[in-house]
Write a structure and sequence with these properties.
Helix 10 links the parallel strand 4 and strand 5. The chain has 352 residues and is mainly alpha-helical. The longest helix has 28 residues. Helix 4 crosses helix 14, helix 5 runs parallel beside helix 15 and helix 12 crosses helix 14. The protein folds into two domains: 224 residues, Rossmann fold (3-Layer(aba) Sandwich), CATH 3.40.50; 83 residues, Tyrosyl-Transfer RNA Synthetase, CATH 1.10.240.10. It starts with a strand and ends in a 6-residue tail after the last helix. The strands form two sheets. A three-stranded parallel β-sheet has the order 1-2-3. Strands 4-5 form a two-stranded parallel sheet. It catalyses: tRNA(Trp) + L-tryptophan + ATP = L-tryptophyl-tRNA(Trp) + AMP + diphosphate + H(+). One of its GO terms (cellular component) is cytosol. GO terms for molecular function: ATP binding; tryptophan-tRNA ligase activity.
Amino acid sequence: MSVARMLTGDRPTGRLHLGHYVGSIVNRVRLHQRYESFFIIADLHMLTTRNRREDIDQVSRNARDMVTDILAAGVDPARATFYLQSAIPEVGDLNTLLQNLVTVPRLERVPSLKEMARDSGKEEMPYGLLGYPVLQAADILCVKGQVVPVGKDNAAHVEVTREIARRFNHLYGEVFPVPELIPSDTPSLVGTDGQHKMSKSRGNSILLSDDPETVRRTVMGMYTDPNRVRADVPGTVEGNPVFAYHDAFNPDREQVADLKGRYRAGRVGDVEVKEKLVVALNRFLDPIRERRARIEADRGLVDQLIVEGTERTRREVRQTVVEVRRAMGLTGAYQQVRRRAERSRRLPTAST
């Protein structure tokens, strides 16, 4: 019995951070041992919000950093296929064939698209961003992905994929599996500013590649309870990002419970709470740093993984597009015209 396929990935906009880890990477590390796993480096999706030449020029470096981060987090390179989306033009072909299976009003109901436009400073919705879920459907269906791990922000996108797959199969025959969503059980991680989701562009993130001193400096500057002016003032734990990070990354549950109790009672200062968070985060990141060092010492490894994975994936996608065109009858239309043209060339020309 064949192993089910998983499709997951990220846009190559820079190094990954703790928000990526809790929102998706920890799930991928667990799942990639169970499924045949494809990791997309989604640079075409990046163009929907970052399409300046200087952004595009950073893709190759960001792609290497992204793959390095994922491997350092615990993904086994022998059990993962990494590929660069823009190096597989057939994905664009499939996107074109699928885009008529969904309506504009349906896409406008995807809640995260307006948020993405707003966060990238777009006053109006670009056509490509509105079609983001369709291209994402092409990404998933081009490798016949059967499972997709998602955070809450992407669940609505993948639901569009499921609808497109069902619609295609109904119209043209069973070609695509209808992918299942595997939701993350961890909510999105608030940034160190306590105001927004963690994001590289907002400067409120802790990177998986940060060194211990950078982590310490960032944590000591974190937002806490704004109403707490002294250590003996009872503080609020709920919504406090320092405690959200303790919950996510500090395995010493007794220590976390003690800190929360004393914080609410006004018997511990922010400095002590943050110092203990620094220790917990660096303990969490140390194994990732060690794996990163080994990966970076193996020169050319990441580039080789991307090239081999892209070539393998392109072979898969070419076959899928052939099946799609055949199911839709598009190959037959051209063959009919071609046969007529060949017959006409065999006929003798009329004498004058």
